[in-house]
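stage 2 :: seqdesign
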């Protein structure tokens, strides 16, 4: 029995990361005192935006994944690239009004971070500057939350510089942790991402420990 295309699309969208990110941002909005409807809007917006980033990532890495990750729907031939492009286009058309519903400043911040995350991965994934899109995109989350509101109105309250810096640092930590499982394949491909460069100097176990402690401290600082 073949897997339904909808389920394959969901798998290609990196659902675990999408749900965790959307959930974390929604909880952050609720903790900040935002009404339940606004927290729900945050969850929906981030879930759709992260799906766009996930599909863009799998489309970019399709040839590479065919050599190392044939279990993925797209690289394994279970999912047609045209189907993913269509789904991603529909998600882009949906995420724009969702982002604008938070207010103009919050909407611009979120659409900018989606663009940075998607394009940055395509352009810098194999380079030592691979951390830049992660830090920039995560650094825009506080603006998205601080300026966010309901009904397209938003607020004029800017995020604190400390929170922006901590969010950017969290992006670096998440980048290191998520990259670790694929470092062997990255090395085989001749890539030079920051996690790979650091792992070659320190060893993967030590990098895992340092990245985990660093990310934990940043999360504690944010809380």
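stage 2 :: out
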């Amino acid at each position: 029995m073949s897997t339904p295309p909808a389920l394959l699309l969901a798998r290609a969208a990196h659902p675990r990361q999408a749900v965790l990110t959307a959930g974390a941002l929604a909880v952050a909005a609720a903790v900040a005192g935002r009404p339940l409807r606004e927290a729900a809007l945050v969850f929906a917006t981030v879930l759709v935006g992260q799906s766009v980033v996930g599909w863009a990532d799998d489309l970019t890495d399709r040839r590479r994944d065919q050599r190392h990750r044939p279990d993925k729907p797209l690289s394994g031939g279970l999912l047609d690239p045209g189907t993913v492009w269509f789904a991603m286009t529909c998600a882009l058309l949906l995420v724009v009004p969702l982002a604008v519903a938070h207010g103009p400043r919050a909407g611009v911040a979120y659409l900018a971070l989606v663009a940075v995350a998607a394009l940055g991965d395509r352009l810098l994934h194999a380079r030592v500057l691979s951390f830049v899109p992660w830090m920039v995109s995560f650094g825009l989350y506080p603006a998205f939350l601080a300026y966010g509101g309901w009904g397209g109105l938003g607020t004029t309250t800017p995020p604190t510089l400390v929170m922006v810096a901590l969010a950017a640092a969290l992006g670096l930590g998440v980048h290191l942790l998520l990259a670790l499982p694929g470092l062997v394949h990255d090395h085989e491909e001749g890539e030079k991402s920051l996690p790979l460069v650091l792992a070659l100097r320190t060893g993967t176990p030590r990098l895992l420990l340092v990245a985990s402690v660093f990310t934990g401290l940043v999360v504690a600082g944010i809380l």
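stage 3 :: structure notes
- DSSP finds eleven helices and no strands in the chain.
- The mean pLDDT is 91.
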